Structures are given as structure tokens and as C-alpha cells.
């Protein structure tokens, strides 16, 4: 996926080239559905602009704003903000000005904190705005992990409070949050505080999902569980579900998510819902509990994805090509002995024999995948939280 911006005929144009081609997006637009680009830009068919020539046949062009002699205005409905955002025309617009790590909308984060329209660059002081240098500083210090909203808001407020005094309160909110029974004695201690907040929030969300998530559709469920898993596997810098490749059986394969670590190595993530049964309810073959078909099929699915990526050159190159468009130029995707991660089902109700049999199954497939139930995931988060609390000097519940 690539996006860029053009100023043309008094309109700000977003040029969008989807990694999987334009057909699927065009079909969604034609059916009247809204398309979300990088979780930041919300576009529909009425915003489409015809390409100037055939060179743009793989690119969709949307009008997302307008400009006059001094400033470019982004359409608030497109960026989903209550306030208007104006950028000086001498600023070269690029995705990194609007989209932070993990597709966080920078503009919506600022919009939630300020109480006025925002002017960036140009005659910013006369407009009650902020200089472009300060905006760049905001982007450079923008949180790059799934920290709590209190921490993210504090970081942003630090950068903009000089120009928008109402933001100062968010620093105080965050300081009060940290002061509840804790003291920071070092940089390491501060990191422990932040991690504790992250993992505690992840555990709370996971428990809420397990208790009240029956009505959530599978796609949304997978996204929310993926965000929690990325805390447990911080080595991965990309987790995308936009990858389809040729299968060994003649059918295209599309894993739930493809993972890429900081060195470019590729792995697979499959997420099934908690109601997936794992073992037979009654001991069967020679008094053993064995995997049910759906669970065995999920493991086989991962094995087949890995087989296709490693044994079929066409599939391998398809994956590498599509991932390359999503990664920084400094990182080259590598498919070398990929591993899988599978999360599915519950294990809290297992009897002692079921626990032993399930452990045998997990060890049997350890060379292929890290297999977890949702109860395993809860236990991991709880163990991490307990460890972090012991590392924080003077921590009290």
C-alpha cells in the first residue's frame, strides 16, 4: 500500500495504490461503502476523481481537502475530526505527517486535546497555531507502542501546550496516574511503570472480551486480539492481513496475519475465537484426549501456509513483493524457516489428563507453531504484570 498527496485545481488529492490492486476497493466504493485508508482517511465514492491518464490505472485518487493562496485545509469529514486542520502550502505533505506507528491518526489525537482549529506553519502566530518545526517535533516524539491513552495524551500535550494552553491538564492527569502508590527512581523504573500500564490495560481488555465479546464478529475480534499479542511479541514491527499468495493446491492462501520482525524475517499468526473446541470431550483412542477436527485443521492450515511460502518460488516472491511495499526501505523481507503462532479455545476447564494431553500436542507441533489458548494468554499477561510490580520500588496495590 502506498499513498501520496497532490495539490491540483484548488483540491488536495490523496493518491492511493492498494497492495492488492484497486478492484476490491472500487467494488466497495461502488456499493456505497466507506473505505478507511491507514485508519486515518475515510473516503467514499463521491470523493473519487478521474485519473488524468492511463498511468494512474492502479491508483485511486480522492479529493480530501482544498487550498487557497496560503493554506491547505483537510476535509474534517475525511479525517474524522471535530476541528479543522490547515497546513501551510509550503509544507510538502506526506503520510508521516498524518499517520503514526501502527496506523494511529495523529490529527485525531491532537483533535481530542485542543479546542480550536489548527494552523501549522506559515503565519501560524497570527492564526493562533503552531510552527511546522514544533509539529515535526510532535511526530518525532509520538508514542511508538500501545501505551495507555493517558500516556499518549501527555506526550502530545508536552509538544503542543506552548501553543494550545488547554492541553496542559493532560500532563497533570498522567502524573497523577503514575503517582498512585508508585515513585519513579530511574529511567528503568519509568519504563517499568509504562509497561505495567500497558500490560494491565491489555489484560483488562482481554478479560472484557472473553466475558462480553460473544457478539463481536471474527474480523474485529482478530484485530483486537492481535493488538494484545503484539505486546507479548514486541520483536514484530509489522502485522498485516493484506497478504494473499498462491497455494500448493491451486487455491490462493490468505493467513489471518503475516508477521515481520525487525530483521525482516516472516512468520504467520492465526487467531480463532475462544469458543473453538480443542480436545474431545470424552477420552477416546486408548483413553487419550485427542484434538478435534477444527483445531487440527487450524494447525494444518499454518503448516500449509509455511509449505507454500517455502517450497513454491512464485508464492515466496508474491509474499516478499507485497511485504516490501509495507516495510521501510531499509528492511528486506526474508522467508527462512517461518514459524506460526496459533491462539484458539479455552483450557481453564481441562481436567488433569486433558492438561497433560494438550501439553503433549503443543510440544508435538512446537517446531511449527506456538500454540496458546486464551487462558494461556491471560496467564502470561498476569505473570508479566506480577513480575513488573516486583521490579517497581515501593509499588503498592
H/E topology pattern:
EEHEEEEEHEEEHEHHHHHHEEEHHEHEH
Taking all Cα atoms into account, the compactness measure Rg is 24 Å
Report the total helices. Answer: 13
Give the overall shape.
globular
Main sheet: strands, sense, barrel: 7 strands, mixed
Q: Roughly what is the average pLDDT, rounded to an integer?
A: 84
What is the count of distinct domains? 2
Q: Helical residue percent?
A: 25-40%
Low-confidence stretches: 52-56, 181-187
Q: Structural class of the helices, strands and pairings?
A: alpha+beta
- Report strand %: 15-25%
How many β-strand stretches?
16
- Distance from first to last alpha carbon: 45 Å
Structural account:
With 397 residues, this protein is α+β, with helices and mostly antiparallel strands. The chain folds into two domains: 2-135, no CATH class; 217-388, no CATH class. Helices cover 40% and strands 17% of the residues. The chain contains 13 helices and 16 strands. The protein has helices at 23-30, 76-79, 106-111, 124-127, 132-140, 149-160, 168-179, 187-212, 218-232, 293-311, 313-324, 352-364, 374-391; strands at 2-8, 11-17, 35-37, 41-43, 48-49, 60-67, 71-74, 85-88, 99-100, 104-105, 118-120, 236-240, 257-261, 266-271, 340-343, 369-372. The chain is globular. Residues 52-56 and 181-187 have low confidence and may be disordered.
Please tag this protein with its features.
seven-stranded mixed β-sheet, globular, single chain, 13 helices, alpha+beta, 2 domains, 16 strands, 397 residues
Amino acid at each position: 500500500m502506498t499513498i501520496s498527496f497532490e495539490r491540483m485545481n484548488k483540491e488536495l488529492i490523496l493518491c492511493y495504490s492498494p497492495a492488492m490492486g484497486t478492484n476490491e476497493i472500487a467494488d466497495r466504493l461502488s456499493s456505497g461503502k466507506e473505505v478507511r485508508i491507514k485508519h486515518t482517511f475515510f473516503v467514499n465514492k463521491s470523493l473519487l476523481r478521474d485519473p488524468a491518464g492511463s498511468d494512474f490505472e492502479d491508483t485511486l485518487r480522492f479529493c480530501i481537502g482544498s487550498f487557497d493562496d496560503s493554506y491547505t485545509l483537510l476535509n474534517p469529514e475525511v479525517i474524522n475530526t471535530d476541528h479543522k486542520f490547515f497546513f501551510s502550502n509550503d509544507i510538502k505533505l506526506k503520510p508521516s505527517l498524518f499517520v503514526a506507528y501502527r496506523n494511529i491518526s495523529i490529527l485525531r489525537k491532537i483533535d481530542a486535546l485542543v479546542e480550536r482549529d489548527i494552523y501549522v506553519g506559515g503565519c501560524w502566530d497570527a492564526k493562533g497555531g503552531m510552527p511546522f518545526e514544533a509539529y515535526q517535533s510532535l511526530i518525532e516524539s509520538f508514542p511508538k507502542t500501545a501505551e495507555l491513552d493517558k500516556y499518549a495524551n501527555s506526550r502530545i500535550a508536552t509538544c503542543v501546550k506552548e501553543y494550545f494552553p488547554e492541553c496542559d491538564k493532560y500532563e497533570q492527569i498522567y502524573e497523577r496516574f503514575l503517582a498512585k502508590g508508585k515513585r519513579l527512581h530511574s529511567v528503568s523504573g519509568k519504563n517499568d511503570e509504562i509497561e505495567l500500564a500497558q500490560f494491565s490495560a491489555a489484560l483488562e481488555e482481554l478479560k472484557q472480551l472473553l466475558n462480553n465479546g460473544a457478539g463481536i464478529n471474527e474480523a474485529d475480534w482478530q484485530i483486537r486480539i492481535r493488538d494484545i499479542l503484539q505486546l507479548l511479541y514486541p520483536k514484530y514491527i509489522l502485522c498485516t492481513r493484506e497478504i494473499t499468495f498462491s497455494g500448493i493446491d491451486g487455491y490462493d492462501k490468505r493467513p489471518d496475519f503475516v508477521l515481520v520482525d525487525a530483521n525482516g524475517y516472516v512468520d504467520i499468526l492465526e487467531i480463532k475465537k475462544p469458543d473453538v473446541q480443542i480436545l474431545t470431550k470424552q477420552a477416546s483412542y486408548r483413553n487419550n484426549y485427542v484434538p478435534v477436527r477444527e483445531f487440527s485443521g487450524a494447525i494444518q492450515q499454518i503448516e500449509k501456509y509455511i509449505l507454500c511460502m517455502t517450497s513454491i518460488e512464485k508464492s515466496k516472491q508474491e509474499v516478499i513483493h507485497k511485504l516490501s511495499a509495507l516495510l521501510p526501505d531499509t528492511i528486506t523481507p526474508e522467508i527462512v524457516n517461518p514459524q506460526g503462532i496459533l491462539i484458539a479455545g479455552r483450557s481453564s476447564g481441562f481436567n488433569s489428563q486433558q492438561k497433560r494431553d494438550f501439553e503433549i500436542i503443543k510440544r508435538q507441533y512446537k517446531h511449527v507453531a506456538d500454540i496458546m489458548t486464551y487462558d494461556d494468554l491471560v496467564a502470561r499477561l498476569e505473570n508479566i504484570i506480577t513480575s513488573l510490580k516486583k521490579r517497581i520500588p515501593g509499588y503498592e496495590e
